[in-house]
Amino acid sequence: MPQMTRIQQKNRELILNGALEAFSANGLRGATIDQIARAAGLSKPNVLYYFGSKDEIHKALLTTLLEMWLAPMRQIDPDGEPLAEVLRYVQAKLSMSQDYPRESRLFAHEILQGAPHLTEILGGDLRQIVDRTVAVLEGWMDQGLLARVEPRHLIFSIWSMTQHYADFETQVRAVLGDGRDPVAEGAAFLDDLYRKLLTP
User: Fold this and answer.
1) 35-45: per-residue pLDDT in tens?
2) 134 and 36 within one domain
3) Closest by alpha carbon to 19, among 9, 4, 3, 51?
4) Does the keyword Phosphoprotein apply (predicted)?
5) What torsion, rounded to 10 degrees, do the Cα atoms 189, 138, 76, 129 define?
6) What is the pLDDT of residues 101-134, one digit of tens each?
7) How far apart are CA 98 and CA 91, in angstroms?
8) Same domain, yes or no: 47 and 60
C-alpha cells in the first residue's frame, strides 16, 4: 500500500475523529456516514474514498483505540522497580480515562456487544501483550519483589477500576457531589490500594 500524503493522513484523522463524535453520540447503529462526514467537515464521497463503509470506519477507530489502551502496558519495564512500575501503569490508565472518556466508553460499548469488530485483535495482540505482562509480574512475584496475586485478575482489576471513572463518570460525580475531584481522589485511593495489595 503506497504511503499516504500529509493531506490524506489529515483527512483520515478527521474522519476517525468525526466517527468518534458520531459513534459516541449515537452508537454504531444510530450513526450514519452523513453524520460522520459532517463531524469531520468533509463530504460524504470524500469519507467513502478513505473507508468503504461505516463498519470499516468503526473497526479502524477501535483498532486505533486498542493500540492507545495497550501503550501504557507495553511501557512496563521488566528491569524497573516492580511496585513503581505497576503503580505507574495504574496512574497512566486512570489518566487515560480522564483524557479520553469518549474513547473509553466507545471501547466498553464494543466489548459489551460481544466485540464483533475486535474478536481477531482481542485474541491476538491483546492476548500477547497481556501474556508478556503476566510473565513479568510472575517473575517479580517469584523473586519476592511483589506479593503473590493472580496476575491476570490483577490486570482485570486495574482495567475495571481505572476505566470506571470514564465509563460511569456521571454516577461517580453524582455520588461524590460538587466540589470534589473524582480523578484526583481516585488516583490517591488506587495508589494506596495497590501499594498495600502488592507490597511483599
Assistant:
1) 999 999 999 99
2) no
3) 51
4) no
5) -110
6) 778 777 777 777 777 766 666 666 788 899 999 9
7) 11
8) no
